[in-house]
Structure to design on (350 residues):
């Protein structure tokens, strides 16, 4: 994949995430199976698909939008291979590597977290932070706290701890190693997950940490190393792969065992779909817009919980789409401003 393809895919991922994180807060809207699998959520989804109404787009985004996270993990792994393996240059030591990536994440996170705590303190429903929660967020280790659903606020910021863990795993165990090491790591993490109760506390905490993201992350590593070789051997139209893998995302999401493997279909659908779009001239405007969204994706990720807290009451009071539209407009504009602010913060030295 070239730079443009990656940015378009990143744009798709962030759109799914920031819309999902709004819609799933609305009471009547179907909820997702992200950390755990609930058959009730699947049953409600099938009910709304059988009798669709004006809120169907909200249901679909709420249930499927969180799959933007596996796309981000896939892209992160792909970028690591491009940066540290294709060049063939010297590899930084473990401490230097982890420090650099921690500071990159911290640069993004701290701008959003400080802004969020200010807005949270002056709006209804203020969160009562403990010292442990604040310190754990700043250190990006809050995923390790017991009962993470009730420890991490704003909720989407669990991703920073997840990425820090995966950076450590990459540098210690996967970087410039045989493909077998990656495959074994993916298999072990998936195998343990299959042994856990799909709707229990153990799998919830398990999927908050690197083990739950190892499958798409490993796929990103393998695709970056061998993707073109796979493509040449497998063949087939990218449009066909897009349709088949998109259907597979839906089908795999309906069963507690198959659900574990849904990120594979998500990554295939994302890569093939973006390649299909960028290959046709009539989609030029759309791909340019998605590329721009990808460019502001980091800033949009850190700022959208702030705007959600402000605009969600409008939707909850009955003006569902009015609140959503204002949230979208404000989030995109604030993300652009946040990106400019983050540019002013010095980058860490590699």
């Amino acid at each position: 994949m070239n730079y443009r393809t990656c940015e378009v895919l990143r744009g798709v991922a962030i759109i799914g995430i920031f819309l999902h994180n709004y819609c799933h807060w609305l009471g009547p809207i179907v909820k997702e199976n992200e950390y755990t699998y609930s058959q009730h959520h699947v049953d409600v989804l099938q009910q709304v698909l059988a009798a669709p109404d004006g809120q169907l787009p909200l249901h679909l985004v709420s249930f499927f939008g969180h799959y933007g996270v596996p796309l981000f993990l896939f892209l992160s792994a792909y970028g690591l291979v491009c940066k540290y393996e294709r060049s063939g240059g010297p590899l930084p030591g473990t401490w230097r590597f982890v420090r650099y990536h921690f500071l990159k994440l911290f640069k993004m996170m701290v701008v959003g977290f400080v802004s969020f705590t200010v807005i949270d303190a002056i709006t209804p429903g203020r969160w009562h932070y403990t010292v442990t929660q604040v310190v754990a967020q700043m250190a990006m280790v809050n995923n390790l706290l017991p009962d993470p659903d009730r420890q991490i606020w704003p909720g989407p910021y669990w991703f920073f701890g997840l990425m820090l863990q995966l950076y450590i795993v990459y540098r210690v165990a996967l970087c410039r190693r045989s493909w077998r090491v990656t495959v074994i790591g993916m298999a072990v993490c998936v195998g343990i997950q299959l042994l856990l109760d799909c709707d229990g506390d153990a799998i919830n905490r398990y999927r908050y940490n690197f083990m739950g993201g190892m499958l798409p992350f490993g796929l990103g590593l393998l695709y970056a190393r061998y993707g073109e070789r796979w493509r040449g051997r497998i063949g087939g139209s990218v449009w066909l792969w897009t349709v088949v893998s998109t259907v597979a995302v839906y089908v795999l999401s309906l069963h507690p065992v198959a659900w574990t493997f849904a990120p594979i279909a998500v990554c295939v659908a994302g890569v093939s779909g973006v390649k299909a779009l960028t290959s046709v001239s009539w989609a030029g405007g759309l791909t340019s817009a998605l590329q721009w969204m990808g460019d502001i994706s980091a800033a949009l990720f850190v700022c959208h919980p702030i705007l959600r807290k402000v605009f969600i009451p409008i939707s909850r009071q009955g003006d569902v789409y009015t609140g959503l539209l204002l949230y979208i407009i404000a989030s995109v504009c604030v993300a652009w401003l946040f990106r400019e602010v983050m540019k002013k913060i010095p980058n860490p030295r590699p």
Notes: The first helix runs from residue 3 to 23. Residues 26 and 318 are 10 Å apart (CA to CA). The chain has a mean pLDDT of 94.
